């Protein structure tokens, strides 16, 4: 993607989409590779995209059996999401992150993320 005329953020979004496809297809190492490529392209002003990349990493790492690294990536995703303004779109991302954290076995942080999802829609 380095040869593309697309903007850097667009390139990062494309890498994240590829990471999601690879994760869904069960190609966990490729998902991690694309998520890390996106991370290398993203700037500090894109917290929701940063969070999305970390969440993909967390899911792939957890699926590979590396629960601790998955939880570390999920904690980074939480940190980025806390910088994101409340919106319906953010609520969906908080919910997905809560599910990821719950799957990794951290119920306390999962509950906090579920509560953030609800707060984003005024509940």
General description of the model:
There is one protein chain. This protein has 123 residues and is mainly α. 76% of the residues lie in helices and 0% in strands. The chain has helices at 8-25, 28-41, 47-63, 67-81, 88-103, 107-120. Helix 1 (8-25) runs parallel beside helix 3, helix 3 packs antiparallel against helix 4 (67-81) and helix 5 (88-103) runs antiparallel to helix 6. It is globular and about 35 Å long.
Key descriptive features of the protein:
123 residues; 76% helix; 6 helices; mainly alpha
How would you summarize the topology of this molecule?
Elements: H1 8-25, H2 28-41, H3 47-63, H4 67-81, H5 88-103, H6 107-120
Helix pairs in contact: 1-2, 1-3, 2-3, 3-4, 3-5, 4-5, 5-6
Task: Describe, in short, the structure shown.
The chain is an all-alpha fold and 123 residues long. Helices cover 76% and strands 0% of the residues.
- The first-to-last residue Cα distance is 41 Å
| Strand and helix order | HHHHHH
Task: State mean pLDDT (0 to 100 scale).
Answer: 93
Helix fraction bin: over 70%
Shape: globular
Radius of gyration: 14 Å
Structural class label: mainly alpha
Strand content: under 5%
Low-confidence stretches: none
User: Count of DSSP helices?
Assistant: 6
Question: How would a crystallographer describe the biggest sheet?
Answer: none
| Total count of strands | 0
